[in-house]
C-alpha cells in the first residue's frame, strides 16, 4: 500500500515499532478498521493471532480465545487505529477523474467512508465535514465537534440516517447543512395560506371575477387531495360560476 500520507506513514511506522509487528500487519489492521467505519474490524493476519473481530467498546475475539494478552494487544491496537483515522488524514486523495473521487478534492482523503443502499458518505476529520451522496445529489454538512465513527440507516434514503460520535448517535439533519451540489441550501418555502371553504362561501357576494376563479382553483386543489367529493366540488363550482 503506497498511498499513505506522510503523517499516515509516520503513524504506521510508530505503531509497528511500539507493537513490535510488521508494517504489513499494521496496514492490514488499519484497513480492517477503516472498512468497519472506525468502530469495528474483521481481520485475518498471522501476527495478530490469525482471524478475529474487534468492536469499539465491546468484545474482542482472537484466534486463541484463551489468550488474554493477545486479546488486549489487538484491542489496544485497533483502538489506536480508530483514533488515528478519526483525527487525521492517513491516505492520499484519489487522483482527479477517479471514480472514487466523488467528494470535493479540497478535503483530501476521508477519515472514514462507506455506503448503504443508494447512499454513500465520507467523513473528513481535519475539515470537520461530512459529505453525503444520495441519488446523485452531494450534500456537505458541518460535523461541529463530533468525531464521526460509524453510520446507522433504518431505511433507504437519508431520512433515517444517523452517525455515531464520541457523544453517541447524532441525526444527520441535526448537523448544519453547508451546501447541496456546490450551492448554498435553499431556505424552506413558506406554505401558501389557503382561504377556508367556509370563508369562500360567506364572501361570495363580494367576490370579483378573479376572486371567483381563484376560489375555483382552491376548490380544485381540495378536490384533488380528496377533501371534497366529486359532487361537492361540482356543486360549489357551479355556485361560484353563477356569481359571474
Could you give the topology of this structure?
Elements: H1 6-18, H2 23-35, E1 40-45, E2 50-55, E3 60-61, H3 68-87, E4 112-116, E5 119-124, E6 129-134, E7 137-142, E8 150-153, E9 161-165, E10 168-171, E11 177-180, H4 197-202, H5 209-224, H6 230-241
Helix pairs in contact: 1-2, 2-3, 5-6
Percent of residues in beta strands?
15-25%
What's the gyration radius in Å? 29 Å
The H/E string reads HHEEEHEEEEEEEEHHH
Distance between the termini: 80 Å
Would you identify the regions where 5 or more consecutive residues have pLDDT less than 50? 155-159, 200-204
Please report the total strand number as a whole number: 11
Across the major sheet, the strand order is 4-5-6-7-11
Distinct helical segment count: 6
Could you please describe the fold and organization of this structure?
- The protein is of the alpha+beta class.
- The protein folds into three domains: 6-87, no CATH class; 105-180, no CATH class; 197-241.
- The chain has six helices and eleven strands.
- Strands 4-5-6-7-11 form a five-stranded antiparallel beta sheet, with no helix packed on it. A three-stranded antiparallel beta sheet has the order 1-2-3. Strands 8-9-10 form a three-stranded antiparallel beta sheet, with no helix packed on it.
- Helix 5 (209-224) runs antiparallel to helix 6.
- The radius of gyration is 29 Å and the shape is elongated.
- It starts with 5 loop residues before the first helix and ends with a helix.
- 25% of the residues are buried.
Amino acid at each position: 500500500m503506497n498511498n499513505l500520507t506522510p503523517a499516515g506513514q509516520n503513524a504506521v511506522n510508530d505503531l509497528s515499532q511500539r507493537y513490535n509487528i510488521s508494517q504489513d500487519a499494521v496496514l492490514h489492521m488499519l484497513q480492517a478498521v477503516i472498512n468497519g467505519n472506525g468502530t469495528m474490524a474483521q481481520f485475518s493476519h498471522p501476527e495478530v493471532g490469525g482471524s478475529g473481530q474487534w468492536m469499539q467498546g465491546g468484545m474482542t475475539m482472537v484466534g486463541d480465545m484463551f489468550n488474554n494478552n493477545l486479546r488486549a494487544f489487538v484491542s489496544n491496537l485497533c483502538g489506536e487505529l480508530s483514533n488515528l483515522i478519526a483525527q487525521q488524514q492517513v491516505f492520499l486523495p484519489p487522483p482527479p477523474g477517479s471514480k472514487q473521487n466523488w467528494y470535493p478534492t479540497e478535503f483530501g482523503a476521508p477519515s472514514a467512508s462507506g455506503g448503504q443502499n443508494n447512499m454513500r458518505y465520507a467523513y473528513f476529520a481535519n475539515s470537520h465535514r461530512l459529505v453525503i451522496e444520495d441519488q446523485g445529489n452531494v450534500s456537505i454538512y458541518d460535523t461541529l465537534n463530533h468525531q464521526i465513527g460509524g453510520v446507522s440507516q433504518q431505511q433507504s434514503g437519508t431520512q433515517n440516517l444517523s452517525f455515531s460520535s464520541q457523544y453517541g448517535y447524532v441525526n444527520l439533519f441535526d448537523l448544519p447543512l453547508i451546501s447541496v451540489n456546490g450551492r448554498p441550501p435553499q431556505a424552506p418555502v413558506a406554505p401558501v395560506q389557503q382561504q377556508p371553504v367556509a370563508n369562500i362561501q360567506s364572501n361570495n357576494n363580494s367576490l370579483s371575477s378573479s376572486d371567483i376563479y381563484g376560489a375555483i382553483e382552491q376548490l380544485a386543489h381540495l378536490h384533488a387531495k380528496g377533501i371534497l367529493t366529486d359532487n361537492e366540488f361540482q356543486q360549489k363550482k357551479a355556485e361560484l360560476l353563477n356569481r359571474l
